[in-house]
Design goal:
Oligomer: heterodimer
Number of strands of chain A: 14
Largest interface: A-B, 14 and 12 residues
Structural class of chain B: alpha/beta
Distance between the termini of chain B: 48 Å
Largest sheet of chain B: 8 strands, mixed
Helix content of chain B: 40-55%
Number of helices of chain B: 13
Number of domains of chain A: 2
Helix content of chain A: 25-40%
Order of helices and strands of chain B: EHEHHHEEHEHEHHEHHEHHH
Strand order of the largest sheet of chain B: 3-4-2-5-1-6-7-8
Structural class of chain A: alpha/beta
Order of helices and strands of chain A: EHHEHEHHEEEEEEEEEEE
Strand content of chain A: 25-35%
Radius of gyration of chain B: 18 Å
CATH topology of the largest domain in chain A: Pectate Lyase C-like
Number of helices of chain A: 5
Shape of chain A: elongated
Strand order of the largest sheet of chain A: 4-6-8-10-13-14
């Protein structure tokens, strides 16, 4: 019960971080003064963390603190992704060093970028649809139903009713009538194609290029396949 | 084991209740024990079509809530003793039913009856879902026009995904197509979808084609299911439906417009 009067809990707050681009304090003072003049009340007693990440020469930590407090900020501490020794030095000098998640974030950002790059190359190196496996659905896709073959071709053994939607990252084959919507190459695959035994679709789309029924007149009601030729949809007789 | 048959459609006004009444009475006339359940809570109609509206004391919701026993709520048909009707409540809404209690009522009815015919409300909301949930078979009532066909298609999707059989991975619900208000003359004139068109879109087995007939409205208003009107085309067509439901192969009638002879043309017959 000894510590019932107090309780320590971690919380997250939004703190302003002042990034210093130079260690010439005269310049910093001049720019700070200009900034604060624009909205003096806004900065009054605002807690501030100073990032020293961009400073590479010797730093006068005490001078920076004094300067900050001169402008009526509440000085919290220093931050930035700096060497372990420098962090230790700051602590030894009696200032707090605020660790940010920034080190991790930037690392994560790099990873994300890499994985995106990886994915992009994966898509780029997968131009032939035969690299996709097939998702096979037996039976009719009824009005209101939706089926998505993620990263696959979609094979429907049956008809696709009006008001139904079939989507695939690869090709779409309908062994029956296509009366609903068919969206092939949904994640960007310009070589995707749509095949059906009877073209009466509400909409067909390949890699974001779409046709409504009125554009399908040429092969309406007959077996057809649709592909993308120079960013234009074209339909051809299937048999 | 009772056969639980839902009469459904998605769209309203296509003839679900008329068909439920005709099929229920038709099966009972063949000597089967049949119970007709009105699932259209709040819009009670089946009792009117069956001509027993003045005999409703307790209803389906009373039974669900344990306020009445099944025997108190069931109305015995005056024409055929093996037929009973479980009327809907007119004062409540569709939320009055829940899966668990409906299941219990159906189970109890199954001990006595051979056929449980569930007359579904229109729509695809809770009420319609409740009516089809426990079904073994479905009679999808459709008019030969595009909106009705599309709604039937939607309901067929629901039958295949939202029913108890679908949820438990059992054998799927047996689907039957019942085309009502069919007018061969208008099909020939290109104003109406043909049987072939509808079969092609829905691709389920055809159970019957009921021709558009004056007899249906007359029968509804009189509270005498049209199947009793053995002279009418619609009555005969429903009779064929019963035979097919019982496993017989019956040829489809009333699919071609009658060729009027010179005399009937002259005298407007």
């Amino acid at each position: 019960m000894a510590d019932a009067s107090i309780e320590f809990k971690g919380s997250s707050f939004t703190l302003s971080v002042l990034h210093l681009n130079t260690s010439i304090l005269a310049d910093v003072r001049a720019d700070l003064a200009k900034k604060i003049a624009q909205a003096p009340d806004f900065f009054y007693l605002v807690p501030v963390v100073v990032s020293i990440e961009k400073l590479d020469c010797a730093i006068d930590y005490q001078a920076i603190k004094t300067l900050i407090e001169e402008f009526k900020f509440t000085f919290v501490g220093f931050t930035g992704s700096v060497a372990k020794e420098q962090r230790q030095l700051i602590r030894e000098l009696g200032f707090s060093f605020v660790n940010t998640a920034k080190v991790n974030t930037s690392a994560k950002a790099v990873i994300t970028k890499e994985s995106i790059a990886e994915k992009t190359t994966a898509i780029a190196t997968k131009p032939e649809s035969d690299l996709y496996t097939d998702k096979v659905h037996r039976g009719q896709i009824r009005s209101g139903q939706q089926i998505y073959a993620k990263g696959q071709n979609l094979v429907i053994i049956g008809s696709v009713s009006a008001g139904a939607e079939v989507i695939a990252d690869g090709n779409i084959h309908v062994y029956g009538s296509l009366r609903g919507r068919a969206i092939a190459g949904a994640k960007g695959h310009h070589k995707a194609q749509i095949y059906c035994q009877n073209l009466e679709a509400e909409l067909v789309s390949i890699n974001g290029n779409y046709w409504l029924s009125e554009s399908m007149e040429q092969h309406w009601g007959s077996p057809a396949f649709i592909q993308l030729t120079d960013s234009e949809l074209t339909s051809s007789k299937l048999i | 084991m009772a056969r639980i048959i839902v009469v459904t459609s998605g769209k309203g006004g296509v003839g679900k209740t008329t068909s439920s009444a005709a099929i229920g009475l038709g099966l009972a006339l063949k000597g089967h024990k049949v119970v007709l359940i009105d699932f259209d809570i709040g819009l009670r109609n089946l009792d009117l079509i069956m001509g027993c509206e003045r005999r409703v004391v307790y209803d389906f919701v009373n039974v669900i809530n344990g306020e009445a026993t099944l025997n108190q709520a069931l109305i015995k048909d005056k024409r055929v003793s093996s037929l009973s009707i479980l009327p809907a409540s007119q004062t409540r809404d569709k939320d009055a039913l829940n899966k668990e209690n409906v299941g219990k009522v159906l189970e109890e009815l199954g001990e006595t009856y051979d056929y449980i015919i569930c007359d579904s409300p229109a729509g695809i909301e809770a009420g319609a879902m409740m009516a089809l949930y426990y079904a073994d078979e479905a009679i999808v009532t459709t008019n030969p026009e595009v909106s009705s066909v599309r709604d039937s298609d939607r309901i067929l999707g629901m039958l295949a995904s939202r029913s108890r059989r679908a949820e438990l991975g059992l054998e799927p619900i047996k689907e039957h197509l019942l085309l009502t208000r069919y007018s061969p003359k208008r099909v020939e004139e290109g104003e109406m979808l043909s049987v072939e068109d509808v079969e092609d879109i829905l691709s389920i087995p055809l159970l019957g084609v009921i021709p558009e007939s004056q007899a249906v409205l007359k029968a509804s208003n009189a509270g005498e299911p049209v199947i009793l009107d053995t002279e009418s085309d619609a009555g005969k067509a429903y009779q064929d439906v019963i035979d097919r439901l019982l496993g017989e192969t019956v040829e489809f009638r009333f699919l071609v417009a009658e060729k009027k002879g010179i005399f009937s043309r002259m005298f407007g017959g």
